[in-house]
Amino acid sequence: MGWSVNPSYGVINNGNGNYTFPENKTANDIEYTVTYENDGISAFMVYTVKAGDECQDICNVYIPYPTVFFDSSASTENVGTITGCTISKLSGPRWVTVSQNNNTIYLTVDENTDTLERSGTVELTVNGSTSCNSIDVRQAAKTVQHDYVEIAGIKWATMNIGARSITDYGQYFSWANVEGCSDSCSFTEYNYSKTRGYGFTGDITDEAIGYDAATANWGDDWRMPTKEEFARLVSATNYTWKENYQDSGVNGMLMQSIENPSIELFFPAGGDYDGSTHQYAGENGYYWTRNYYNTASAYSLNVHNNEINAENLANRYLGFMIRPIKDEN
User: Fold this and answer.
1) Neighbours of 4 (CB within 10 A)
2) Measured CA angle at 318 (ends 67, 64), to 5 deg
3) Which one of 46, 123, 214, 258 has the largest count of C-beta atoms within 10 Å of its C-beta?
């Protein structure tokens, strides 16, 4: 009985059907329906508050990371919070669903049965209006069997993450981030500042595997190497710079076990990405380690014309390759 308004979030009731509506900072017009009911008599009026110039959801939506990464399995992740409203999926990949439990927002993905990573953008609605927030979703490819060779007690993958052959460069990663890129990449300081890995400090350990690209993309049996493990590999091998290795058109470093020369690894000189520039391909090969130096730099391996540096310092935002090691402990 009496006066009511829908939606009521943020609306001030001044009495006797007089309401003050909040400023609309969303991307859409908002309609408020004011209804009066008394002794079987009902009447209503609709008030429209036009969309604002600056997009802002009608209630508090907090999504800390614009990109969410999933492994290949079906799983659910907490991606943010919402206060006083209902959130739902407006559009996006069919393999992603959005749910809400009280104030917590969840994304759920189906299992990825493909051997390729998949991605998409989920657009959201808040109380039926288009949200100013969206979420980029990336899901790792189906886990496949990866070959390795053992040198000095360490099982080294024969290919880089994302590679389809031993001479393929594969994907490039900024340090402490698990999302890779192989084409049309943009590894800039600004883009890095928006990633999860940007705020990470310290070495990447088994307790911080969410920052290990090898584990995230290949599964729990794989991880990134440390600079000490790269140094151990260098000490246990004879290495030779190869031009056009196996008629592939790719240059790089061939590393043969001193103990058993039939066991070998090839590290393609895939260069790196600085911004959108793919540079030094054919001249240098840069590979991230797990080891932190400071907020701006981390350790990497660099192979270049019969020279190897297992403690090469580099800017963390740069796009480098990753050569995993198998760790079954």
Assistant:
1) 15
2) 20
3) 214
Cα–Cα nearest to 70, from 4, 138, 2, 157: 138
Q: What is the dihedral of CA 296, 301, 302, 305, to 10 degrees?
A: 170
288 and 230 in contact (C-beta within 8 Å)?
no
**Domains in the chain, start-ordered, CATH in brackets?**
2-49 (no CATH), 60-139 (2.60.40.10), 148-326 (no CATH)
Dihedral sign computed on CA atoms, order 116, 121, 126, 127: negative
Average the pLDDT over 294-316 and give the result.
Answer: 97
| Residue 281 Cα to chain centre, angstroms | 25
Which pTM value belongs to this model? 0.61
* The residue to which tokens 């196996």 are assigned: 246
CB atoms within 10 A of CB 230: 25
For residue range 160-183, what is the model confidence (pLDDT) as tens digits? 999 989 999 999 999 999 999 988
In this structure, the number of other CB atoms found within 10 A of the CB of residue 159 comes to 20
In this predicted structure, what is the pLDDT of residue 56? 66
By the 8 A CB rule, do 268 and 286 touch?
Answer: no
Do 323 and 240 meet the contact criterion of CB atoms below 8 Å apart?
no
Residue burial 265-288, b: 16+ Cβ < 10 Å; e: rest: bbbbbbbbbbbeebebbeebbbbb
Element (H, E) at 46: strand 41-49
- For 288, the token pair is 């991230």
Q: For the chain, first and last CA: distance in Å?
A: 68
Give the whole-angstrom CA distance, residue 36 versus residue 13: 14
What's the full length of the chain, in residues?
329
Q: 3-state SS of the chain: helix, strand, coil percent to 5?
A: 10, 45, 45
* Per-residue tokens: 37: 């009911």
As a whole number of angstroms, the distance between CA 256 and CA 129 comes to 61
What's the sign of the alpha-carbon dihedral 128, 74, 207, 228? negative
